[in-house]
Design goal:
By secondary structure, chain A is an alpha+beta fold. Chain A has three helices and twelve strands, in the order E-E-E-E-E-E-E-H-E-E-E-E-H-E-H. At the A-B interface, strand 1, strand 2, strand 3, strand 4 and strand 5 of A face strand 1, strand 2, strand 3, strand 4 and strand 5 of B. Chains A, B: One of its GO terms (cellular component) is nucleus.
Chain lengths: 201, 201
C-alpha cells in the first residue's frame, strides 16, 4: 500500500556532488558595455535536440462528453507537495521533441494521440535557469464506449491522471490549490488564458 | 548608445560563491517508504510572503482600440537572448504579492492599473526548482487621447514594453520566436490557452 511521500531533510548540495543539475556563473556584457555576473541553474541532461523537456496539452474529443484535457498529479520533492501539471517529460538524448510528446503522453496517461501542434522552444524561468521546453498539442478522438487505457509507468513512478473538461479546468486548478496541491505555473497560465477568453472577451 | 548585450563566459559556480541562488540536496521518502535524493535550485531572496515573484497579465481597455496586453522584452543572461515575458519581478521582503504586481507593472511599463485577480501560489518548474510565483491580472482603462506613460526603470535596467492586441498575441509570440527572441513558457502558455479558446472550441 503506497505511503505519503515526504521530504525528510534539505541540505546544501556541493557542486561536485550534483548529478542532474549544475550551477553556472555567467559573465555577460551589458547594454553599456559593462561586464557583469549572473547566476543560473542548468540541467545536465539536454540531448541532441537542444530542448530539455516537453509538455502536452491534450485535447480529448468524445461524441457525448465535453472537450477535455488531461492533468497529472505527482509528488515533487523540490516543492514538497503533490503537483498538478500537464503530462510532461525530458526529451531523450536522440529523440525529437515531437516524438517525446507522443511517447510521454502514452506513458503517463495511457492515451495515444496525434500531434497537431508543437510550439517553438520556450524558456521556463529565464531569470534563474537555462531550462527550456516545447509545448505540444496532442489530439485524442474517442468513440462511444472506448475504455480508459492503462498507463505505462516505470517501476517507482506514481502518477495519477485526471481527465478534466476544458470549461471547468480553471476552477478545478483553483480547487486543487485550496486542497494544498501545487499547480504548475505553465498549466495554470494555459488555463487562465482559456478562462479569460471565455469570460472576459 | 546602447550596445547589444552578450554572454562572454560561462563557468561552473562553486556553491560558496553563489549569492542569489543555492543548490539543495533533498532527501525524501517515496511512496514505498524508500529514502531517495532529489536535486533542486532555490532562490535565496524569498521574503515574508513566501512567494518569490509575481507576473502580470495586463488588460488594457480603450474606447477605440482592441483589448490588449503588455509584454516586455529584456536580455536574459541564463538563456543568452532577448526574452519576451509578462511584466514580472521579485516580491520585496515585506510587501505583499498584490502590491508587488501593481508596483512592478508601473516600474516596467509606466501603466498604473487596478488589480482585479491574483492567483494562488503556483510553481515555475517543480522538477528542478523550488521557485514559486503568483499571476496577477491588472486592468488599465484608458480614455481617448491618453498618452503612453513613462516607464520608471532603475539605472541599468533596459526593458522594452510592447502593447499587443489580445487577438494577435499568439501569432506575435510565434513571430518573436522566429526572429531569435526567446518567449517565456508561462506567457506562451497563457497566449496558447487564449488562442485555443478562440480557434478550437
Amino acid at each position: 500500500m503506497p505511503q505519503s511521500p515526504k521530504v525528510t531533510a534539505v541540505d546544501s548540495l556541493p557542486a561536485n556532488e550534483a548529478k542532474w543539475i549544475e550551477f553556472q556563473k555567467i559573465t555577460w556584457s551589458d547594454q553599456t558595455g559593462k561586464s557583469r555576473i549572473w547566476e543560473a541553474a542548468s540541467r545536465k541532461t539536454r540531448g541532441k535536440s537542444g530542448v530539455d523537456a516537453v509538455a502536452i496539452s491534450t485535447i480529448i474529443r468524445h461524441p457525448s462528453r465535453p472537450p477535455s484535457t488531461i492533468v497529472i498529479l505527482q509528488y515533487r520533492p523540490p516543492v514538497g507537495a503533490i503537483c498538478v501539471e500537464f503530462p510532461a517529460g525530458l526529451v531523450d538524448e536522440s529523440e525529437t521533441p515531437s516524438d517525446a510528446s507522443v511517447r510521454e503522453l502514452h506513458e503517463e496517461t495511457g492515451y495515444k494521440g496525434k500531434l497537431s501542434y508543437i510550439s517553438p522552444t520556450i524558456v521556463s524561468d529565464p531569470g534563474m535557469s537555462t531550462a527550456n521546453m516545447q509545448l505540444a498539442t496532442v489530439e485524442v478522438n474517442l468513440k462511444e464506449g472506448d475504455k480508459e487505457p492503462e498507463q505505462a509507468l516505470d517501476d517507482g513512478e506514481f502518477i495519477e491522471r485526471v481527465v478534466v473538461p476544458l470549461d471547468s479546468l480553471f476552477e478545478r486548478l483553483e480547487a486543487y490549490s485550496k486542497e494544498g496541491k501545487m499547480v504548475d505555473a505553465r498549466l495554470f497560465h494555459w488555463a487562465a488564458g482559456l478562462h479569460f477568453a471565455r469570460t472576459m472577451l
